[in-house]
Amino acid sequence: MSEAPALDPGSFRDPKGRVFSRNGEIFRAVGPLGLEGYTRARDSGLLTELEARGWLVPSREIDGGSARAAGLDGRIVLQHPRLPFIAYPYEWPFPALKDAALLQLDLILACLDRGFSLTDASAYNIQFNGHRPQFIDVLSIQPYVEGEPWFGYRQFCEQFLNPLLLTALRGIPYHAWYRGSLEGIPAIDLAPVLRLRDRLSLRLLSHVVLQARLQRQSFADPSRAGASARKVRLTQGGYKAIVMQLRDWIADLQPAGSSKTAWVDYARSNTYSGAEYAEKRTAIAAFCAKVRPRMLWDIGCNSGDFAAAALQSGAGFCVGFDADHGALEQAYARAKSGALAFVPLYQDMANPSPSQGWNERERPGVGGRKGADALLALAIIHHLAIGRNVPLPDVVRWLVSLAPQGVIEFVPKSDPTVQIMLALRQDVFDSYNEQAFVEALQGEASVVASRTSSATGRTLFTYERA
Amino acid sequence: MIRSNRAPRASRLFAPLLAALLIISMDVRPAHAYLDPGTGSILLQSTLALIAGTAVTLKLYWSKLKGLIWRRRPEQEHRADRDE
Hints:
The complex is a heterodimer of chains A (466) and B (84).
Chain A: E1 6-7, E2 17-22, E3 25-30, H1 32-43, H2 46-52, E4 60-62, H3 64-69, E5 76-80, H4 94-113, E6 116-118, E7 126-129, E8 132-135, E9 141-143, H5 153-170, H6 175-180, H7 187-190, H8 196-199, H9 202-220, H10 222-231, H11 236-251, H12 266-269, H13 274-291, E10 295-299, H14 305-312, E11 317-322, H15 325-337, E12 342-346, E13 374-377, H16 381-387, H17 392-402, E14 405-410, H18 416-422, H19 434-444, E15 446-452, E16 459-464
Parallel strand pairs in A: 10-11, 10-13, 11-12, 13-14
Antiparallel strand pairs in A: 1-2, 2-3, 3-5, 4-5, 6-9, 7-8, 14-16, 15-16
Helix pairs in contact in A: 4-5, 4-11, 9-10, 13-14, 17-19
Chain B: H1 6-11, H2 15-24, H3 38-69, H4 74-82
């Protein structure tokens, strides 16, 4: 039985088209306002070219009959392949946001060369299909009008440039700020954070300090500013120069003090011996070879070593979550260099991304984006149960709810990592032990296998939900 | 794409001058969030185009000059171009 098409709750801002899903397939109905721009871009060959480069999510026009059968109106209906996972810029590690920014700028240059421009510069229009960023909003591509300013410039600054600068210049992660401010970080808010020595760069002075100042002036005298803004004519050469300058600048940005954070050295300095680590990797590989999950979630993915092992052994796609920025940067580099179907994302598992935006439905939270066939939760349980005081049965119930089967590692109190966590705290965790863990797990699923994973008493439990 | 790190560095010479001008003319006014702040960002673009255009032109001349100087060693130029 086929269902009625459901409007994507995040697809309402741009009146040029609407995104629908039906039976798991993704459609885009092109509205009257988007029709001319779309057909011109299509007929020019630009869309095919961008798709061939892997920059643009492919579109296929479906015929009127099947569109009507799908309950879709709109003169043209496109079908897009369904992306494995939707993630948001406030979850991307620094190098991912940077690559997305570079893609956005490259797209603008490619479009301008063919007589088109982009109507906006929303970071939410980019998704990671594996290690590669891809632009998903084909209707943003519209014919370029000679002299038009870069309409998406402010949005580009707020959603790409300013968050990157915050981390690159001041070492402040942008994630919490960005998650709380979905439109990004305005120049007016970023400017006061900059030091005098940051300001002694013409690029920073013009794109941040001067922009913040002009925005303030516009607020103070809106009618005059509006009249002047309507007169701004930007030559195509000037347009491209701005984009190219930003591209050069962003390509060189690195997180400030990006050396070691808590988990970067995990693989070397954790409480495992080398042999135990290799054995754990083998166990994960064996699990994935048997289950062959289409979508694997790796909670506490660190630098992605186990995710890589899982992908090599039969997992189709892996989304990794971690709260450590350094580890995530390494994981992203691993995904990119190995061309892995692996998307590492920033996530504090004790406070995961909520459903937010308009009507609290525009950007679904982690719980609203479920769909994993299998789960890895290695060396994470003590961080939630002891580090964050979440009752052990609650942690187990939540983990098991994420996927029908998986591997969860129990880390006992005797483990040196837990000992360090408890060194300065009162031990109020009487019910934190392996027996209580197993009981909680058996309450949610069947335990199909268990094996000791370290001499310190860590154990891997494989579960299967009924 | 032709890239060189020297041109932006040269353009930084103007930064203190512009900074001084800005600081002198700085006035703090209350922000009223009822206007789309895109207006200020659009107003900025003529200035940005001038700055970026100058930088691109300088870079172009710089790479031409470099091309003249290093004509006998073209492999150097290739390496610089690939430095993305």
